[in-house]
Amino acid sequence: MTCSYRVDPFGESPARKRVTVRLSTTHSTSSYGQPVMVLPDGGALDLMSWVGCGYRIERATAKEREAVARILGTLACQD
């Protein structure tokens, strides 16, 4: 799945950077089979980063969107 985030979350620039994110239930931060979003460097994308950096989904399958909605709730659909 492709997501993007604001390059300068505290500035006025609208510039965004795209990044490939994968969903995993085997990452060390996953528990009880709950999927987590994993960044290319292997780190997990947490709620604080999702909101603070203005992440949004750019391209995803219906199944991926459904999983992200379970992880983030209504935050997954905000710009």
Protein model, in words:
A three-stranded antiparallel sheet has the order 2-1-6, with no helix packed on it. A three-stranded antiparallel sheet has the order 3-4-5. It has helices at residues 47-52, 62-72, and strands spanning 2-6, 16-20, 22-24, 36-38, 44-45, 56-59. The protein is an alpha+beta fold and 79 residues long. The protein has one domain (2-77). The chain has two helices and six strands. The model has no long low-confidence stretch (mean pLDDT 87).
Keywords:
79 residues; alpha+beta; 3-stranded antiparallel sheet; 6 strands
Rg computed from alpha carbons, rounded to a whole number of angstroms: 12 Å
Number of strands: 6
| Overall number of structural domains | 1
Number of helices: 2
Provide the succession of SSEs.
EEEEEHEH
Which outline best applies?
globular
Strand content: 25-35%
* Strand ordering within the main sheet: 2-1-6
In angstroms, what separates the terminal alpha carbons? 17 Å
Q: What is the averaged pLDDT score?
A: 87
Q: Which structural class do the helices and strands define?
A: alpha+beta
Instruction: Outline the biggest β-sheet.
Output: 3 strands, antiparallel
Low-confidence stretches are: none
Helix content: 10-25%
